[in-house]
Amino acid sequence: MDSKKSFWETVPGILTAIGGTIAAAATLLTALYTTGLIGNKAVPTPTPLTTTQSPIPLAQSASPGREVAKAEAPSPENRTATVTSSSGPPRSFYLDSVDPPGKDVWARLGEDTWIERYPDGRTNEFRHAGRLINNNCIGSLLYRITFTDLEVFIPDRDCSAKQLQWRHKKAEWHYLGEMRDIQ
After folding, report:
1. Phi and psi at residue 23, in whole multiples of 5°?
2. Strand partners, 125
3. d(Cα 86, Cα 108) in Å, to the nearest integer?
4. What is the mean pLDDT of residues 7-13?
5. Could you give the CA distance from residue 87 to residue 69 in angstroms, rounded to a whole number?
């Protein structure tokens, strides 16, 4: 009889096989969790109603015809409030898209869902997180479903600046585009 054993029949071989199996299972679980096929399906809601770039007290920042309720936090960096506007948020609009070229269409579906549709047909879904005053405009704060650190500010229809803005992780707001054909 041959007394030579295969590597896989030795203690180091068995330990290597077990370690490889555990690593493969961990990699598979990580991939499934990252894609959302397993795990918690709840989407964290960002802190809504942040007032930004408003050097005057929140209650004075609204123009006549708008109602702004009490500010809960005194610091300009983190003011929250219940905010309403006489015209309310738009139902739809588009931006001129550069990449891909064409119209980037935004549409509100119900009270809390927005869809962004690129000219090539790709879409992003956003949820309404609250109302907000940004650059003296009252508008809606949205967060992207698949990337909750990305927030978008959509000004109400009666705001003079029809500019869609975005920010990442509550940093500075950035210009995304001029809103056109506002419904």
Report:
1. -65, -40
2. 115
3. 18
4. 90
5. 17
